[in-house]
Amino acid sequence: MSNPLRIAVVGSGIGVEHLKGYQELPELFDVKVLCDISLERALPVAEKYGIPKVAESFDEVCRRADIDVIDICTPPSFHQGQIQAALKAGKHVICEKPLLGSLAAADAVSRLANECGRQVMPIFQYRFGHGLQKLKHLVDQQLVGEAFVFNVDVAWWRDSEYYRNPWRGKRATELGGALLSQAIHAVDMVLYILGPAKSVFGWTRTRVNQIEVEDCVVITMEMADGSLGTISVTIGSLAEISRHRFTFRNVTAESNTEPYANSREPWAFTFNAAGNEKQVRDSLAQFKPGPERYAGQFDRFYQALRDGTELPVTLAAARAALEIVAATYHSSENNQPVTLPIGPDHPRYEGL
Length: 352
Ligand SMILES: NC(=O)c1ccc[n+]([C@@H]2O[C@H](COP(=O)([O-])OP(=O)(O)OC[C@H]3O[C@@H](n4cnc5c(N)ncnc54)[C@H](O)[C@@H]3O)[C@@H](O)[C@H]2O)c1
Known about the structure:
Bound molecules: nicotinamide-adenine-dinucleotide
Helix content: 25-40%
Strand content: 15-25%
Mean pLDDT: 98
Number of helices: 12
Protein backbone atom coordinates (compact mmCIF):
# COMPACT_ATOMS: atom_id res chain seq x y z
CA MET A 1 0.00 0.00 0.00
CA SER A 2 1.41 3.39 -0.94
CA ASN A 3 1.87 5.87 1.81
CA PRO A 4 0.21 8.33 1.65
CA LEU A 5 -2.67 6.82 -0.35
CA ARG A 6 -3.02 8.57 -3.70
CA ILE A 7 -6.56 9.83 -4.28
CA ALA A 8 -8.64 11.09 -7.20
CA VAL A 9 -11.82 12.92 -6.18
CA VAL A 10 -14.55 12.90 -8.85
CA GLY A 11 -17.15 15.67 -8.64
CA SER A 12 -16.59 19.10 -7.15
CA GLY A 13 -19.89 19.66 -5.29
CA ILE A 14 -19.82 17.69 -2.02
CA GLY A 15 -16.40 16.58 -3.29
CA VAL A 16 -15.10 19.80 -1.71
CA GLU A 17 -15.94 18.42 1.75
CA HIS A 18 -13.98 15.29 0.85
CA LEU A 19 -10.99 17.40 -0.16
CA LYS A 20 -11.13 19.14 3.22
CA GLY A 21 -11.34 15.76 4.98
CA TYR A 22 -8.23 14.46 3.17
CA GLN A 23 -6.35 17.67 3.85
CA GLU A 24 -6.93 17.18 7.59
CA LEU A 25 -4.89 13.95 7.24
CA PRO A 26 -1.89 14.91 5.07
CA GLU A 27 0.25 12.01 6.26
CA LEU A 28 -2.36 9.49 5.11
CA PHE A 29 -3.73 10.97 1.87
CA ASP A 30 -2.46 12.87 -1.14
CA VAL A 31 -5.17 14.10 -3.53
CA LYS A 32 -3.54 14.06 -6.95
CA VAL A 33 -6.50 14.72 -9.24
CA LEU A 34 -9.87 16.44 -9.17
CA CYS A 35 -12.10 15.13 -11.97
CA ASP A 36 -15.27 16.85 -13.16
CA ILE A 37 -17.09 17.08 -16.49
CA SER A 38 -17.38 20.79 -15.70
CA LEU A 39 -13.92 22.34 -15.79
CA GLU A 40 -15.55 25.65 -14.99
CA ARG A 41 -16.58 24.21 -11.63
CA ALA A 42 -13.46 22.15 -10.95
CA LEU A 43 -10.67 24.59 -11.79
CA PRO A 44 -11.33 27.17 -9.03
CA VAL A 45 -11.81 24.34 -6.50
CA ALA A 46 -8.53 22.70 -7.51
CA GLU A 47 -6.75 26.02 -7.24
CA LYS A 48 -8.23 26.79 -3.81
CA TYR A 49 -7.27 23.38 -2.39
CA GLY A 50 -3.94 23.04 -4.20
CA ILE A 51 -4.86 19.95 -6.23
CA PRO A 52 -2.15 19.61 -8.91
CA LYS A 53 -4.24 18.13 -11.74
CA VAL A 54 -7.78 18.60 -13.07
CA ALA A 55 -9.26 15.97 -15.41
CA GLU A 56 -12.46 16.07 -17.44
CA SER A 57 -12.55 12.36 -18.19
CA PHE A 58 -13.32 9.65 -15.64
CA ASP A 59 -11.72 7.03 -17.94
CA GLU A 60 -8.48 9.00 -17.93
CA VAL A 61 -8.49 8.92 -14.11
CA CYS A 62 -9.01 5.14 -14.19
CA ARG A 63 -6.00 4.73 -16.50
CA ARG A 64 -3.63 6.69 -14.27
CA ALA A 65 -1.07 4.46 -12.56
CA ASP A 66 -0.47 7.00 -9.77
CA ILE A 67 -3.96 6.66 -8.24
CA ASP A 68 -4.83 4.09 -5.54
CA VAL A 69 -8.35 5.21 -4.62
CA ILE A 70 -11.08 6.83 -6.73
CA ASP A 71 -13.52 8.78 -4.57
CA ILE A 72 -16.84 9.20 -6.42
CA CYS A 73 -18.89 12.31 -5.56
CA THR A 74 -21.01 12.48 -8.72
CA PRO A 75 -24.83 12.41 -8.95
CA PRO A 76 -26.35 9.04 -7.93
CA SER A 77 -27.16 7.67 -11.39
CA PHE A 78 -23.43 7.67 -12.28
CA HIS A 79 -22.31 5.70 -9.24
CA GLN A 80 -22.79 2.15 -10.50
CA GLY A 81 -20.96 2.59 -13.82
CA GLN A 82 -18.13 4.56 -12.22
CA ILE A 83 -17.67 2.11 -9.33
CA GLN A 84 -17.51 -0.80 -11.77
CA ALA A 85 -15.05 0.97 -14.09
CA ALA A 86 -12.81 1.94 -11.17
CA LEU A 87 -12.78 -1.60 -9.74
CA LYS A 88 -11.94 -3.07 -13.17
CA ALA A 89 -9.07 -0.59 -13.40
CA GLY A 90 -7.70 -2.01 -10.12
CA LYS A 91 -8.61 0.93 -7.90
CA HIS A 92 -10.17 0.97 -4.45
CA VAL A 93 -13.38 2.99 -4.38
CA ILE A 94 -14.98 5.42 -1.98
CA CYS A 95 -18.46 6.52 -3.05
CA GLU A 96 -21.03 9.00 -1.81
CA LYS A 97 -24.51 8.01 -0.76
CA PRO A 98 -26.83 6.79 -2.10
CA LEU A 99 -24.32 4.18 -3.14
CA LEU A 100 -26.56 2.51 -5.73
CA GLY A 101 -30.14 2.37 -6.96
CA SER A 102 -31.02 -1.25 -6.20
CA LEU A 103 -30.16 -4.25 -4.07
CA ALA A 104 -29.29 -6.15 -7.25
CA ALA A 105 -26.71 -3.46 -8.08
CA ALA A 106 -25.31 -3.63 -4.52
CA ASP A 107 -24.89 -7.41 -4.82
CA ALA A 108 -23.31 -7.09 -8.30
CA VAL A 109 -20.80 -4.50 -7.03
CA SER A 110 -20.02 -6.69 -4.06
CA ARG A 111 -19.24 -9.65 -6.36
CA LEU A 112 -17.10 -7.50 -8.66
CA ALA A 113 -15.12 -6.05 -5.72
CA ASN A 114 -14.36 -9.60 -4.55
CA GLU A 115 -13.31 -10.66 -8.07
CA CYS A 116 -11.05 -7.62 -8.41
CA GLY A 117 -9.65 -7.90 -4.89
CA ARG A 118 -10.43 -4.24 -4.24
CA GLN A 119 -12.44 -2.43 -1.55
CA VAL A 120 -15.55 -0.28 -1.92
CA MET A 121 -16.37 2.03 0.96
CA PRO A 122 -19.76 3.79 0.95
CA ILE A 123 -19.89 7.18 2.66
CA PHE A 124 -21.86 7.49 5.91
CA GLN A 125 -19.85 10.23 7.60
CA TYR A 126 -22.48 10.94 10.27
CA ARG A 127 -21.54 7.67 11.96
CA PHE A 128 -18.41 9.20 13.42
CA GLY A 129 -19.93 11.95 15.57
CA HIS A 130 -18.79 11.56 19.18
CA GLY A 131 -22.34 11.37 20.61
CA LEU A 132 -23.28 8.38 18.44
CA GLN A 133 -19.81 6.87 18.91
CA LYS A 134 -20.29 6.99 22.70
CA LEU A 135 -23.53 5.04 22.37
CA LYS A 136 -21.85 2.58 19.98
CA HIS A 137 -19.08 2.13 22.55
CA LEU A 138 -21.67 1.21 25.21
CA VAL A 139 -23.48 -1.14 22.81
CA ASP A 140 -20.21 -2.88 21.88
CA GLN A 141 -19.41 -3.28 25.60
CA GLN A 142 -22.85 -4.94 26.00
CA LEU A 143 -23.82 -2.48 28.73
CA VAL A 144 -27.06 -1.04 27.35
CA GLY A 145 -29.37 -4.01 27.95
CA GLU A 146 -32.25 -4.92 25.63
CA ALA A 147 -33.42 -2.32 23.16
CA PHE A 148 -37.09 -1.34 23.59
CA VAL A 149 -37.92 1.50 21.20
CA PHE A 150 -36.19 4.06 18.97
CA ASN A 151 -37.59 7.29 17.52
CA VAL A 152 -36.03 9.32 14.73
CA ASP A 153 -37.02 12.68 13.25
CA VAL A 154 -35.44 14.12 10.13
CA ALA A 155 -37.15 17.49 9.58
CA TRP A 156 -35.22 19.50 7.00
CA TRP A 157 -35.99 22.22 4.47
CA ARG A 158 -35.53 21.98 0.70
CA ASP A 159 -37.36 24.32 -1.66
CA SER A 160 -37.64 24.69 -5.42
CA GLU A 161 -34.23 26.39 -5.56
CA TYR A 162 -32.62 23.12 -4.40
CA TYR A 163 -34.45 21.24 -7.15
CA ARG A 164 -33.12 23.54 -9.86
CA ASN A 165 -30.06 21.27 -9.96
CA PRO A 166 -31.37 19.14 -12.85
CA TRP A 167 -30.54 15.70 -11.47
CA ARG A 168 -32.47 16.27 -8.26
CA GLY A 169 -36.15 15.43 -7.81
CA LYS A 170 -36.28 12.94 -10.71
CA ARG A 171 -36.48 9.21 -10.22
CA ALA A 172 -34.10 8.46 -13.13
CA THR A 173 -31.28 10.61 -11.77
CA GLU A 174 -31.81 11.03 -8.01
CA LEU A 175 -33.04 7.38 -7.77
CA GLY A 176 -35.32 8.22 -4.82
CA GLY A 177 -36.45 11.12 -2.64
CA ALA A 178 -36.09 12.37 0.93
CA LEU A 179 -35.67 8.89 2.38
CA LEU A 180 -32.92 7.85 -0.04
CA SER A 181 -31.20 11.22 -0.41
CA GLN A 182 -31.56 12.95 2.93
CA ALA A 183 -32.68 10.48 5.62
CA ILE A 184 -30.43 7.59 4.55
CA HIS A 185 -27.85 8.78 7.10
CA ALA A 186 -30.45 8.64 9.87
CA VAL A 187 -31.45 5.13 8.78
CA ASP A 188 -27.81 4.02 8.80
CA MET A 189 -27.35 5.44 12.31
CA VAL A 190 -30.22 3.23 13.54
CA LEU A 191 -28.85 0.09 11.86
CA TYR A 192 -25.34 0.88 13.14
CA ILE A 193 -26.63 0.88 16.73
CA LEU A 194 -29.36 -1.77 16.64
CA GLY A 195 -28.37 -4.14 13.81
CA PRO A 196 -30.70 -5.52 11.16
CA ALA A 197 -34.42 -4.88 10.77
CA LYS A 198 -37.02 -7.62 10.50
CA SER A 199 -40.08 -5.80 9.21
CA VAL A 200 -40.92 -2.40 7.73
CA PHE A 201 -44.21 -0.58 7.21
CA GLY A 202 -43.99 2.83 5.56
CA TRP A 203 -45.85 5.60 3.82
CA THR A 204 -44.21 7.95 1.34
CA ARG A 205 -45.85 11.05 -0.11
CA THR A 206 -44.83 14.03 -2.25
CA ARG A 207 -46.36 17.05 -0.52
CA VAL A 208 -43.76 19.82 -0.29
CA ASN A 209 -42.29 20.31 -3.77
CA GLN A 210 -43.37 19.56 -7.31
CA ILE A 211 -41.00 16.65 -7.82
CA GLU A 212 -41.27 13.02 -8.92
CA VAL A 213 -39.82 11.55 -5.72
CA GLU A 214 -41.11 11.48 -2.14
CA ASP A 215 -40.54 14.36 0.26
CA CYS A 216 -42.52 13.14 3.31
CA VAL A 217 -42.10 9.67 4.85
CA VAL A 218 -43.18 7.78 7.95
CA ILE A 219 -41.78 4.35 8.76
CA THR A 220 -42.47 1.92 11.56
CA MET A 221 -39.97 -0.89 12.01
CA GLU A 222 -39.46 -4.05 13.98
CA MET A 223 -35.80 -4.91 14.44
CA ALA A 224 -34.31 -8.41 14.44
CA ASP A 225 -33.71 -8.01 18.20
CA GLY A 226 -37.44 -7.46 18.74
CA SER A 227 -37.27 -3.71 19.40
CA LEU A 228 -39.64 -1.30 17.65
CA GLY A 229 -39.09 2.11 16.14
CA THR A 230 -40.33 5.00 14.06
CA ILE A 231 -38.63 7.26 11.55
CA SER A 232 -40.34 10.40 10.26
CA VAL A 233 -38.92 12.45 7.43
CA THR A 234 -39.92 15.70 5.80
CA ILE A 235 -38.08 18.32 3.80
CA GLY A 236 -40.87 20.83 4.42
CA SER A 237 -39.90 21.81 7.95
CA LEU A 238 -39.25 25.53 8.45
CA ALA A 239 -37.58 24.68 11.75
CA GLU A 240 -34.91 22.11 10.90
CA ILE A 241 -33.99 19.33 13.31
CA SER A 242 -32.55 15.83 13.33
CA ARG A 243 -33.14 13.70 16.38
CA HIS A 244 -32.38 10.13 17.43
CA ARG A 245 -33.70 8.67 20.65
CA PHE A 246 -32.81 5.11 21.71
CA THR A 247 -34.47 3.49 24.73
CA PHE A 248 -32.63 0.49 26.19
CA ARG A 249 -33.18 -1.20 29.55
CA ASN A 250 -30.07 0.38 31.08
CA VAL A 251 -29.60 3.54 29.01
CA THR A 252 -31.77 6.15 27.34
CA ALA A 253 -29.71 7.99 24.72
CA GLU A 254 -30.96 11.15 23.08
CA SER A 255 -29.12 13.11 20.45
CA ASN A 256 -28.92 16.85 20.14
CA THR A 257 -31.20 18.27 17.42
CA GLU A 258 -28.70 20.11 15.18
CA PRO A 259 -30.08 19.15 11.74
CA TYR A 260 -26.72 18.36 10.12
CA ALA A 261 -24.69 17.45 13.21
CA ASN A 262 -26.92 15.46 15.54
CA SER A 263 -24.49 12.55 15.77
CA ARG A 264 -21.99 14.91 17.37
CA GLU A 265 -22.07 15.90 21.03
CA PRO A 266 -23.93 16.80 23.13
CA TRP A 267 -26.04 13.67 23.63
CA ALA A 268 -28.09 13.16 26.80
CA PHE A 269 -27.53 9.78 28.45
CA THR A 270 -29.76 8.64 31.30
CA PHE A 271 -28.66 5.60 33.29
CA ASN A 272 -30.36 2.92 35.32
CA ALA A 273 -29.74 3.93 38.93
CA ALA A 274 -31.08 0.57 40.11
CA GLY A 275 -28.88 -1.31 37.62
CA ASN A 276 -25.44 -0.88 36.07
CA GLU A 277 -25.07 2.92 36.25
CA LYS A 278 -21.56 2.84 37.69
CA GLN A 279 -20.31 0.40 35.04
CA VAL A 280 -21.80 2.53 32.26
CA ARG A 281 -20.31 5.73 33.65
CA ASP A 282 -16.89 4.07 34.04
CA SER A 283 -17.08 2.77 30.47
CA LEU A 284 -18.01 6.19 29.10
CA ALA A 285 -15.06 7.70 30.96
CA GLN A 286 -12.83 5.36 28.93
CA PHE A 287 -14.30 6.39 25.57
CA LYS A 288 -11.55 7.66 23.26
CA PRO A 289 -12.80 10.10 20.63
CA GLY A 290 -11.49 9.72 17.07
CA PRO A 291 -11.84 12.22 14.22
CA GLU A 292 -15.40 13.03 13.14
CA ARG A 293 -17.25 13.41 9.82
CA TYR A 294 -15.36 12.81 6.54
CA ALA A 295 -11.90 12.92 8.14
CA GLY A 296 -13.19 10.43 10.70
CA GLN A 297 -14.31 8.00 8.02
CA PHE A 298 -11.18 8.47 5.88
CA ASP A 299 -8.86 8.00 8.86
CA ARG A 300 -10.54 4.69 9.74
CA PHE A 301 -10.51 3.67 6.03
CA TYR A 302 -6.75 4.11 5.95
CA GLN A 303 -6.24 2.04 9.13
CA ALA A 304 -8.51 -0.73 7.78
CA LEU A 305 -6.64 -0.95 4.43
CA ARG A 306 -3.30 -0.95 6.22
CA ASP A 307 -4.32 -3.59 8.79
CA GLY A 308 -6.52 -5.71 6.50
CA THR A 309 -9.50 -5.23 8.85
CA GLU A 310 -13.16 -4.41 8.14
CA LEU A 311 -13.86 -1.03 6.59
CA PRO A 312 -15.53 1.57 8.84
CA VAL A 313 -18.55 1.46 6.49
CA THR A 314 -19.05 -1.73 4.49
CA LEU A 315 -20.94 -2.52 1.31
CA ALA A 316 -23.21 -4.64 3.49
CA ALA A 317 -24.08 -1.54 5.54
CA ALA A 318 -25.01 0.42 2.42
CA ARG A 319 -27.07 -2.54 1.22
CA ALA A 320 -28.89 -2.73 4.56
CA ALA A 321 -29.83 0.95 4.37
CA LEU A 322 -30.96 0.55 0.74
CA GLU A 323 -33.06 -2.42 1.84
CA ILE A 324 -34.99 -0.21 4.28
CA VAL A 325 -35.63 2.23 1.42
CA ALA A 326 -36.77 -0.53 -0.95
CA ALA A 327 -39.01 -2.02 1.74
CA THR A 328 -40.54 1.37 2.58
CA TYR A 329 -41.31 2.13 -1.07
CA HIS A 330 -42.82 -1.31 -1.54
CA SER A 331 -44.84 -1.09 1.66
CA SER A 332 -46.17 2.34 0.76
CA GLU A 333 -47.16 1.28 -2.73
CA ASN A 334 -48.87 -1.91 -1.57
CA ASN A 335 -50.13 -0.75 1.84
CA GLN A 336 -48.64 -3.74 3.62
CA PRO A 337 -45.64 -4.55 5.81
CA VAL A 338 -42.50 -5.94 4.16
CA THR A 339 -40.51 -8.71 5.81
CA LEU A 340 -36.74 -8.55 5.39
CA PRO A 341 -34.36 -9.57 3.96
CA ILE A 342 -35.16 -8.64 0.36
CA GLY A 343 -33.51 -11.19 -1.93
CA PRO A 344 -33.49 -11.84 -5.68
CA ASP A 345 -37.07 -13.21 -5.63
CA HIS A 346 -38.56 -10.00 -4.26
CA PRO A 347 -40.20 -7.55 -6.71
CA ARG A 348 -38.11 -4.67 -5.26
CA TYR A 349 -34.75 -6.43 -5.72
CA GLU A 350 -33.96 -5.06 -9.17
CA GLY A 351 -34.97 -1.45 -8.49
CA LEU A 352 -36.12 0.81 -5.70
N1 LIG B 1 -22.87 12.57 2.47
C1 LIG B 1 -23.52 13.71 2.40
O1 LIG B 1 -23.84 14.33 3.43
C2 LIG B 1 -23.86 14.28 1.07
C3 LIG B 1 -24.19 15.64 0.95
C4 LIG B 1 -24.48 16.14 -0.33
C5 LIG B 1 -24.47 15.31 -1.44
N2 LIG B 1 -24.18 13.99 -1.27
C6 LIG B 1 -24.18 13.08 -2.42
O2 LIG B 1 -23.05 13.37 -3.24
C7 LIG B 1 -23.38 13.16 -4.61
C8 LIG B 1 -23.14 14.46 -5.39
O3 LIG B 1 -23.99 15.45 -4.88
P1 LIG B 1 -23.65 17.02 -5.02
O4 LIG B 1 -24.58 17.72 -4.11
O5 LIG B 1 -22.20 17.25 -4.90
O6 LIG B 1 -24.10 17.27 -6.55
P2 LIG B 1 -23.68 18.48 -7.49
O7 LIG B 1 -24.58 18.43 -8.66
O8 LIG B 1 -23.59 19.74 -6.70
O9 LIG B 1 -22.18 18.15 -7.92
C9 LIG B 1 -21.88 17.03 -8.71
C10 LIG B 1 -20.62 17.34 -9.51
O10 LIG B 1 -20.31 16.18 -10.29
C11 LIG B 1 -19.98 16.58 -11.62
N3 LIG B 1 -20.30 15.47 -12.52
C12 LIG B 1 -21.53 15.09 -12.96
N4 LIG B 1 -21.42 13.99 -13.72
C13 LIG B 1 -20.09 13.66 -13.76
C14 LIG B 1 -19.36 12.63 -14.38
N5 LIG B 1 -19.98 11.70 -15.10
N6 LIG B 1 -18.03 12.60 -14.20
C15 LIG B 1 -17.40 13.54 -13.46
N7 LIG B 1 -18.04 14.56 -12.86
C16 LIG B 1 -19.39 14.61 -12.99
C17 LIG B 1 -20.82 17.82 -11.87
O11 LIG B 1 -20.29 18.63 -12.89
C18 LIG B 1 -20.78 18.50 -10.50
O12 LIG B 1 -19.69 19.39 -10.37
C19 LIG B 1 -24.82 12.69 -4.63
O13 LIG B 1 -24.86 11.29 -4.67
C20 LIG B 1 -25.38 13.22 -3.34
O14 LIG B 1 -26.48 12.48 -2.85
C21 LIG B 1 -23.86 13.48 -0.05
